[in-house]
Protein backbone atom coordinates (compact mmCIF):
# COMPACT_ATOMS: atom_id res chain seq x y z
CA UNK A 1 0.00 0.00 0.00
CA UNK A 2 2.84 2.38 0.86
CA UNK A 3 4.43 1.71 -2.54
CA UNK A 4 1.23 2.71 -4.31
CA UNK A 5 0.99 5.92 -2.29
CA UNK A 6 4.62 6.74 -3.04
CA UNK A 7 4.06 6.00 -6.73
CA UNK A 8 0.99 8.24 -6.84
CA UNK A 9 2.91 11.02 -5.10
CA UNK A 10 5.79 10.66 -7.58
CA UNK A 11 3.41 10.73 -10.54
CA UNK A 12 1.66 13.81 -9.15
CA UNK A 13 4.98 15.61 -8.66
CA UNK A 14 6.15 14.62 -12.15
CA UNK A 15 2.86 15.72 -13.75
CA UNK A 16 3.11 19.05 -11.92
CA UNK A 17 6.70 19.52 -13.06
CA UNK A 18 5.78 18.61 -16.64
CA UNK A 19 2.96 21.17 -16.60
CA UNK A 20 5.22 23.83 -15.07
CA UNK A 21 7.91 23.11 -17.64
CA UNK A 22 5.44 23.39 -20.50
CA UNK A 23 4.03 26.70 -19.27
CA UNK A 24 7.30 28.31 -18.25
CA UNK A 25 9.41 26.75 -20.97
CA UNK A 26 12.55 27.43 -18.97
CA UNK A 27 13.77 24.59 -16.82
CA UNK A 28 13.30 21.28 -18.65
CA UNK A 29 13.49 20.26 -22.26
CA UNK A 30 13.09 16.50 -22.11
CA UNK A 31 11.38 13.64 -20.37
CA UNK A 32 14.17 11.19 -19.48
CA UNK A 33 13.33 7.48 -19.67
CA UNK A 34 15.01 4.09 -19.69
CA UNK A 35 14.06 1.40 -22.19
CA UNK A 36 16.03 -1.81 -22.47
CA UNK A 37 19.66 -1.05 -21.71
CA UNK A 38 19.59 2.54 -22.96
CA UNK A 39 18.63 6.04 -21.83
CA UNK A 40 16.40 8.23 -23.96
CA UNK A 41 15.19 11.82 -24.02
CA UNK A 42 11.73 12.70 -25.34
CA UNK A 43 11.07 16.38 -26.13
CA UNK A 44 8.38 17.59 -23.71
CA UNK A 45 6.29 19.00 -26.54
CA UNK A 46 6.09 15.56 -28.16
CA UNK A 47 5.28 13.52 -25.06
CA UNK A 48 1.75 13.28 -23.80
CA UNK A 49 0.22 11.72 -20.72
CA UNK A 50 2.09 9.07 -18.75
CA UNK A 51 0.13 5.97 -17.74
CA UNK A 52 0.93 3.09 -15.41
CA UNK A 53 1.41 -0.32 -17.00
CA UNK A 54 -1.75 -1.78 -18.52
CA UNK A 55 -1.67 -5.15 -20.24
CA UNK A 56 -2.52 -4.44 -23.90
CA UNK A 57 -4.95 -6.60 -25.85
CA UNK A 58 -2.89 -8.66 -28.31
CA UNK A 59 -3.40 -8.00 -32.03
CA UNK A 60 -2.51 -10.95 -34.28
CA UNK A 61 -0.17 -10.72 -37.27
CA UNK A 62 1.72 -7.67 -36.06
CA UNK A 63 5.39 -6.91 -35.57
CA UNK A 64 6.90 -8.32 -32.35
CA UNK A 65 7.46 -4.81 -30.96
CA UNK A 66 3.77 -3.93 -31.34
CA UNK A 67 2.29 -5.24 -28.10
CA UNK A 68 -1.36 -4.58 -28.94
CA UNK A 69 -3.95 -1.98 -28.04
CA UNK A 70 -4.93 -0.59 -24.67
CA UNK A 71 -7.76 1.54 -23.35
CA UNK A 72 -6.03 4.52 -21.73
CA UNK A 73 -8.42 6.94 -20.09
CA UNK A 74 -11.16 6.11 -22.59
CA UNK A 75 -8.97 6.29 -25.71
CA UNK A 76 -7.72 3.34 -27.75
CA UNK A 77 -3.92 3.43 -28.13
CA UNK A 78 -1.51 1.18 -29.96
CA UNK A 79 1.27 0.10 -27.57
CA UNK A 80 4.82 -0.05 -28.95
CA UNK A 81 7.63 -1.62 -26.96
CA UNK A 82 10.25 1.10 -27.47
CA UNK A 83 13.30 -1.08 -26.80
CA UNK A 84 12.04 -3.71 -29.23
CA UNK A 85 11.29 -1.18 -31.96
CA UNK A 86 14.68 0.53 -31.68
CA UNK A 87 16.68 -2.70 -31.67
CA UNK A 88 14.56 -4.41 -34.31
CA UNK A 89 13.74 -7.34 -32.05
CA UNK A 90 11.32 -7.93 -29.26
CA UNK A 91 12.99 -7.37 -25.94
CA UNK A 92 12.02 -9.74 -23.17
CA UNK A 93 8.80 -8.43 -21.67
CA UNK A 94 8.76 -7.60 -17.99
CA UNK A 95 7.16 -10.41 -16.06
CA UNK A 96 7.64 -9.54 -12.42
CA UNK A 97 5.25 -7.34 -10.54
CA UNK A 98 8.16 -5.07 -9.52
CA UNK A 99 9.14 -4.58 -13.17
CA UNK A 100 5.55 -3.78 -14.13
CA UNK A 101 5.38 -1.32 -11.23
CA UNK A 102 8.20 0.71 -12.80
CA UNK A 103 7.09 0.34 -16.43
CA UNK A 104 5.11 3.19 -17.94
CA UNK A 105 3.22 3.92 -21.11
CA UNK A 106 4.14 7.32 -22.49
CA UNK A 107 1.47 8.50 -24.91
CA UNK A 108 2.48 10.66 -27.83
CA UNK A 109 1.15 14.19 -27.67
CA UNK A 110 -2.34 14.38 -29.15
CA UNK A 111 -1.12 17.13 -31.50
CA UNK A 112 0.95 14.47 -33.32
CA UNK A 113 -2.38 12.80 -34.26
CA UNK A 114 -1.14 9.26 -33.60
CA UNK A 115 -2.89 7.27 -30.87
CA UNK A 116 0.20 5.50 -29.68
CA UNK A 117 1.87 4.87 -26.35
CA UNK A 118 5.48 3.80 -25.90
CA UNK A 119 6.27 1.16 -23.30
CA UNK A 120 9.33 2.24 -21.32
CA UNK A 121 10.98 0.41 -18.46
CA UNK A 122 11.39 3.35 -16.10
CA UNK A 123 10.78 7.07 -15.85
CA UNK A 124 13.90 8.94 -14.80
CA UNK A 125 12.50 12.47 -14.66
CA UNK A 126 12.91 15.78 -16.42
CA UNK A 127 16.18 16.97 -17.92
CA UNK A 128 17.38 20.28 -19.28
CA UNK A 129 20.43 21.12 -21.33
CA UNK A 130 22.26 22.05 -18.13
CA UNK A 131 22.12 18.40 -16.99
CA UNK A 132 24.64 17.39 -19.66
CA UNK A 133 28.32 18.08 -20.17
CA UNK A 134 28.65 17.12 -23.85
CA UNK A 135 26.52 16.56 -26.93
CA UNK A 136 27.07 14.94 -30.27
CA UNK A 137 25.07 15.34 -33.50
CA UNK A 138 23.67 12.20 -35.10
CA UNK A 139 25.56 10.58 -37.98
CA UNK A 140 24.58 11.66 -41.48
CA UNK A 141 23.03 8.25 -42.18
CA UNK A 142 21.08 8.11 -38.89
CA UNK A 143 17.28 7.86 -39.03
CA UNK A 144 15.46 11.22 -39.15
CA UNK A 145 13.93 10.66 -35.71
CA UNK A 146 17.29 10.26 -34.03
CA UNK A 147 18.43 13.48 -32.38
CA UNK A 148 21.60 14.48 -30.59
CA UNK A 149 23.19 12.22 -28.03
CA UNK A 150 24.13 13.78 -24.72
CA UNK A 151 26.50 12.77 -21.96
CA UNK A 152 25.78 13.61 -18.34
CA UNK A 153 28.34 14.30 -15.62
CA UNK A 154 28.31 10.63 -14.56
CA UNK A 155 29.30 9.59 -18.10
CA UNK A 156 25.90 8.11 -19.01
CA UNK A 157 24.82 8.51 -22.63
CA UNK A 158 21.32 9.81 -23.40
CA UNK A 159 19.82 9.60 -26.89
CA UNK A 160 17.24 12.17 -27.95
CA UNK A 161 14.31 10.78 -29.93
CA UNK A 162 12.17 13.14 -31.99
CA UNK A 163 8.76 11.56 -31.38
CA UNK A 164 7.11 13.66 -34.09
CA UNK A 165 9.52 12.38 -36.75
CA UNK A 166 9.31 8.83 -35.34
CA UNK A 167 5.51 8.85 -35.52
CA UNK A 168 5.67 9.59 -39.26
CA UNK A 169 8.18 6.88 -40.20
CA UNK A 170 6.73 4.16 -42.46
CA UNK A 171 8.30 1.38 -40.34
CA UNK A 172 6.70 2.78 -37.19
CA UNK A 173 3.31 3.08 -38.89
CA UNK A 174 3.48 -0.38 -40.52
CA UNK A 175 2.70 -2.72 -37.66
CA UNK A 176 1.65 -5.67 -39.82
CA UNK A 177 4.02 -8.62 -39.81
UniProtKB/TrEMBL annotation:
InterPro entries linked to this entry: CheW-like_dom_sf, CheW-lke_dom
Protein name: Chemotaxis protein CheW
Residues annotated as domain CheW-like: 27-172
Gene3D superfamilies: CheA-289, Domain 4
Species in which this protein is naturally found: Variovorax ureilyticus
Domain of life of the organism encoding this protein: Bacteria
